[in-house]
Amino acid sequence: MNGDLVTIDEARAALRLDEDFPDLTIQIAVTSASDSVVQYLKLKAPYTDENPPPPNVKQATLLLTGIFLRDPDGVEAQTWEQGYLPWAVCNLLHQRRDPAME
Predict the structure, then answer these.
(1) Which of 54, 43, 45 has its CA nearest to residue 5?
(2) What average pLDDT score do residues 75-102 get?
(3) DSSP assignment, residue 99?
(4) Quick one: which of 10, 38, 12 has its CA closest to 25?
């Protein structure tokens, strides 16, 4: 696993992106979303092929990837509470976050 929590193909399918939508744009969004999710969770060990991310972590990553693709200039991000991800993403991840690490 390269650190990304979802693949380009998973993102393309889940977000209903056309085949002509640039792979590089999707890859940048996936990598950014994956990093944001991992940082929010404060994981002690990264997900691996042997220990893959659970479905709700993948869903949160896809949701955040879609937000990044929809709002590349970050205008929407101004409505997020500082230091947190969008509410829907946090809601999916909250049960997996270690509060002792805050």
Answers:
(1) 54
(2) 82
(3) G
(4) 12
Residue 2 lies in a domain: no
pTM over 0.85? The answer is yes
Using the predicted structure, report yes or no on whether residue 102 has a pLDDT greater than 70: no
Instruction: Report pLDDT digits (tens) over 30-47.
Output: 999 999 999 999 888 889
In a domain, 1, yes or no: no
Chain Cα centroid distance, residue 15: 13
Residues sharing a CB contact under 8 Å with residue 99, sequence separation 6 or more, in sequence order: none
Tokens 């939508």 -> residue? 21
45: exposed, middle or buried (Cβ count in 10 Å: 0-12, 13-18, 19+): exposed
Q: Is residue 90 part of a domain?
A: yes
